[in-house]
Amino acid sequence: MSGRGVGLNFKMSKANVYNWIKKTKPTVNTSYEILEMDELYWFVFRKPKTQTGENVYLTTLVSRSPRQIVGFDIAHDKTPERIQAIVDNSPPAEAYAADGFLGYVYVVYPGRHIRNIRNKNDTFTVKSTNADLRHYIPILARRSRCFARTLETLIAVVTVFVESYNLFGLVKQHFRKFRPKGEMPFGLVDYL
Question: Is the full-model pTM beyond 0.85?
Fold first, then answer.
């Protein structure tokens, strides 16, 4: 045990983790310094015969600190209108980072827009979060025979995952404030 009498050992039971969360009360952000945006693609029902094989896009808006999925959209297209809806429905940020996709240029951001065409220096967190989505949700895994039969199924699965992922990000950030140096951190699998 560490911190203010309430600590989190990475081998705690799920019930003890929930009790620790209630006692320490991690807070939810209402504004962010920087948000990163990216899209990943996949298919539902069957893989089409297009060149890249996608027919559905998952666009995510991720905060760096705490690492959370602030907004997302799943649709058959990735139009600037859809991206604008994600930005409009999320808390404001000082800056928004995106890759070179042209659709991000036509969006009106409440903060500064950082468009990075040549490298991934400003979108490393969202790329990592998208990798987590592909890792923890089997229907998004690459080279998988498991895929969603309907768009509604994919939306439901991602929504449930985002709720758990965001709570985990808050708990992990709050835990780091109170843990002694050298104590083993916990991971998403230990949390679940």
Answer: no
Closest to 69 (Cα-Cα) out of 18, 133, 26: 133
Contact status, residue 139 vs residue 159, Cβ threshold 8 Å: no
3-class DSSP assignment, residue 128? helix
Q: What are the tokens at 187?
A: 């991971």
Closest CA to 116 of 37, 26, 3: 37
Helix (H) or strand (E) holding 127: helix 124-136
Alpha-carbon distance of 27 to 5, in angstroms, equals: 19
Query: Greater confidence, 113 or 153?
Result: 113
Stronger pLDDT, 145 or 125, i.e. the higher one: 125
Report which secondary-structure segment, H or E, holds 14: helix 14-24
Length of the chain: 192
Task: Please give the structure tokens belonging to residue 130.
Answer: 């998208």
17-34: pLDDT as tens digits: 555 555 555 555 667 899
Secondary structure letter of residue 100 according to DSSP = S
Classify residue 30 as exposed, middle or buried by CB count within 10 Å of its CB (0-12, 13-18, 19+).
exposed
What CATH number has the domain spanning 32-166?
A: 3.30.420.10
